[in-house]
Amino acid sequence: MSITLPIALTVAGTDPTGGAGVIADIKSFQSRGVYGMAAVTSLTAQNTLGVQGAYNVPADFLDAQLKSIFTDEVPHAMKSGMIATEEMMRVIKKYVEEYQLPFVIDPVMISTSGDNLIDEGAIDYLRSELLPTALTVTPNIPEAEKLAGLTIENEEDVRKAAKIFIGDIGVQSVIIKGGHLKGDAVDYLFEKDKETTLSSARVDTEHTHGTGCTFSAVITAELARGKPLEAAFRTGKNYITKAIQEAPGLGGGNGPINHFAYEGE
Ligand SMILES: Nc1ncnc2c1ncn2[C@@H]1O[C@H](COP(=O)(O)OP(=O)(O)O)[C@@H](O)[C@H]1O
Ligand SMILES: Cc1ncc(COP(=O)(O)O)c(N)n1
User: Looking at domain 7-245, what is its CATH homologous superfamily?
Assistant: First the structure.
């Protein structure tokens, strides 16, 4: 007898310490009852202290990984994380367009430790070609500033950036994460005619390694389960808040969060 199981795919880089990237994504999928698949874009050498090295997978071999996946079993939703080069972005775009599955882009640029994870030259392609293929995009404040081309210091600036994402860049929706602003941790979902704001008390902690990866992975898992975007956003926010509150305190720097902490439906 076959079992029907939601399937989510992550296309991202690896962090060997398991706090960020595909390993965090798979933990997030698993904890939401979703079968996880992963195609790797880059292998990094990193830990809670920083990124010590990165090795980009040749675009042809990313293509080979995605072909192996899609010609055998098509996932119900997909996310991307670190995509260092334009060549890899072109490959990913081809599959999203062909298979038309819900696609969440976490436009990863700089790690929590401050290290660069994308070629500067790939940012234009990301903005003009890849972002419009997504159901939603989840930039943090520095990523939103870079992609929308303005400085974000407050809620009014967040709204201005969202207008650029939807009006000029042509995304269907955008979730701007306020983890890097001051005060409470406030996240904003902007859809064409609707805005949803979710706020949680800021946890006073250094341990936020992999928060962006995990947040977008939980949203992708919920979409794979057939949930609407706003509900997926709510679960993502509740999950990430618990995961930060109950961080295990591993490593000597920005430690990972707790993928076992959230117990909601
Ligand atoms: N110190 C914190 N306390 C509570 N929530 C946080 C904290 N830092 C980040 N978050 C939340 O974690 C998620 C990831 O946010 P952010 O840190 O902005 O992204 P990134 O990890 O991509 O830099 C968001 O939901 C944000 O509100
Ligand atoms: C391979 C990889 N992908 C993404 C991030 C960003 O992590 P964060 O979720 O902390 O922004 C990272 N540090 N490493």
Answer: Ribokinase (3.40.1190.20)
